[in-house]
Amino acid sequence: MNYILGIDGGGSKTVCVLMDDARQVLGRGEAGASNYQSIGIEATLKSIESAIYAAVNEAINITNAVRIEAICLGLAGVGRAADIELVKSLIKELQNSKLLPLTWDLQPANIVICNDALIALVGGIGHPVGIVVAAGTGSIVFGRNHQGETKRVGGWGYILGDEGSAYKIAVAGMQAALKAYDGRDMSTSLADAFTQHLALASIEDLIEVIYRRGWRVKEIAALAPIVDLAAAEGDEVANKIIDDAVQELVKATSTAVDAIFGPSEFLEVVTTGSVWQARCKIHERFTASIIKKFPHIKVIFPKYEPAYGASLLALQRLAGEWGI
Amino acid sequence: MNYILGIDGGGSKTVCVLMDDARQVLGRGEAGASNYQSIGIEATLKSIESAIYAAVNEAINITNAVRIEAICLGLAGVGRAADIELVKSLIKELQNSKLLPLTWDLQPANIVICNDALIALVGGIGHPVGIVVAAGTGSIVFGRNHQGETKRVGGWGYILGDEGSAYKIAVAGMQAALKAYDGRDMSTSLADAFTQHLALASIEDLIEVIYRRGWRVKEIAALAPIVDLAAAEGDEVANKIIDDAVQELVKATSTAVDAIFGPSEFLEVVTTGSVWQARCKIHERFTASIIKKFPHIKVIFPKYEPAYGASLLALQRLAGEWGI
User: Does the structural domain B128-302 have CATH classification 2.115.10.20?
Assistant: First the structure.
């Protein structure tokens, strides 16, 4: 029996899926973050090792001889040749691990290293053709066509881009609340909403929270639901912010469609990330705009998680399919 | 002879002016930063002491008995009661300094502690009535009327506000360059301009520069001249960014005017900060918009520096004028 590992390494957690060649998931494990650019290579190795250990441990009940013939690692920010070399050396270290209750039979050709957008696409759609619109803390649009051509739009991070992300929605909400407070723009329930949620004496104390408590992108992005709720309750300013976010995501998606798909080619667009869980019908707004522009496109929620997508990629590499 | 000290304490330097009661400047000194929220109270005390030392040292040629009867300290971010208490204790420490070649005769009433916007207003206009539109690394609009009422608009920092600032112009420029690169928006000379200026292999490497080199607000804001130059050379996208910045500053100024001045009351609006030095006629664009809305307003460049404004405030406190 051939086994493969699919790994999704992200900024908050690492997920590993152990799959057989009949696409059966035999085990699944989670561990801490594995974005090596932030946390370093040692901590990343540990997270990946722990996630694999947890996945294999689950499978031990089914089989007691786990031999890995292919592996796919999808990691945020991996693109340049130097990154790929680094991740390869990381996989070598895994192969020497004394902790993992498995054996390896990895041909170099059966090691797949790619960015997190591709595994989200493959997991979300179930095969590697279509577009993924990821909108969580950050945002990125990534597409791949039948010929294997890819197109990335966005993904430039919280300062340079991330349009339509939870971070950008949260920041726009706070800016609107402060502009209303200044008397520069129309009033909005957002000022009260932030004040209450953060237990501030006044909306002016946002300065204290944002700059002096050392809040980072993730903490700020976690305030996006405040804007979502205000929009769902009919606040005009909040709805404008959500509409702007939707239009940014529609524009990025359209750019990817136009770049690599034919004018009336059928394709699926999968939406991933926390932004799509909003109560203010952000998914419906996005879908309506996309369908109006591209009636032949189907907007879907993910069929499977990214780690499952990574498993499929490893499996197809083993079978010599897909050419990825 | 009565002497007073006017001090401008900022994030990059501290300036001290020693003035007599005939508004004659007898000495001027500079030292390092004095934003105690970032650099701590010890370093702030040292900067202020050094700036005073330098100013008094210059005056020693004119007089060898310097006795200080009033002091005004204008510091960024000072507003809350706790801040003011802290700065008062700092002034007490200065009075005990063994380093300073001067004596003190400070009544508590002759100590003025205020934010940096007020001293910029008083220095810029020469008296404490009007509006200051500060647009440097950050941005803030601050006004004061004949009745002593004040109005602040903006000044919420680089995440929550700072519309029209060098930071926001630079970020908008990089975002536009990347959107053009993605194919999302119209092409612009900004992509080449950033690539050349930062010696990048590709505009994609902006990610490397902005996130991995640990660049902070000041370093990013220092890229605003790239956008300025592109706008001056006729780039449409860059000009749109500059126009947006101008409109944000006009809106903030209008809000302050409407809040504390009568509909056709004469007043001066003074512009301070690096943004106004741009080659792309940003000052002219701003002035044209303001005059169109408020024909009775005069837009001026600063008459004096903020430290001079602080001196005037100290002097007027001594004279019992102005009520500040």
Answer: no
CATH superfamily of this structure's domain B3-126+304-319 = ATPase, nucleotide binding domain (3.30.420.40)
The CATH-assigned architecture of domain A127-302 is 2-Layer Sandwich (3.30)
User: Nearest to residue A177, comparing CAs of B161, B245, B151?
Assistant: B161
Packed helices B41-59 and B81-95: angle between N→C axes, nearest 10 degrees: 50
Check B159 against A210: CB less than 8 A apart.
Answer: yes
| Fold match flag (B3-126+304-319 vs B128-302) | yes
Question: Are residues A156 and B207, on separate chains, in Cβ contact within 8 Å?
Answer: yes
pLDDT score of A80 more than 90: no
What distance in Å separates the CA atoms of residue B148 and residue A11, rounded to the nearest whole number?
51
Domain A3-116+304-319 sits in which CATH superfamily? ATPase, nucleotide binding domain (3.30.420.40)
d(CA A250, CA B185): 13
Alpha helix stretches (DSSP H) within B183-321: 190-197, 206-207, 217-221, 224-232, 236-260, 282-293, 306-319
Q: How far apart are CA B69 and CA B67, in angstroms?
A: 6
Closest CA to A180 of A235, A132, A141: A235
CA distance B102 to chain A (A): 37
Using CA atoms in the order A34, A37, A43, A46, what is the torsion angle rounded to 10 degrees? Answer: 40
Residue B191 forms contact with A (CB below 8 Å): no
Domain ranges of chain A: 3-116+304-319, 127-302
Rounded mean pLDDT, A53-80: 84
Interatomic CA distance for residues A65 and B275, integer angstroms:
68
What's the confidence (pLDDT) of residue B284? 94
Model-level ipTM above the cut of 0.90: no
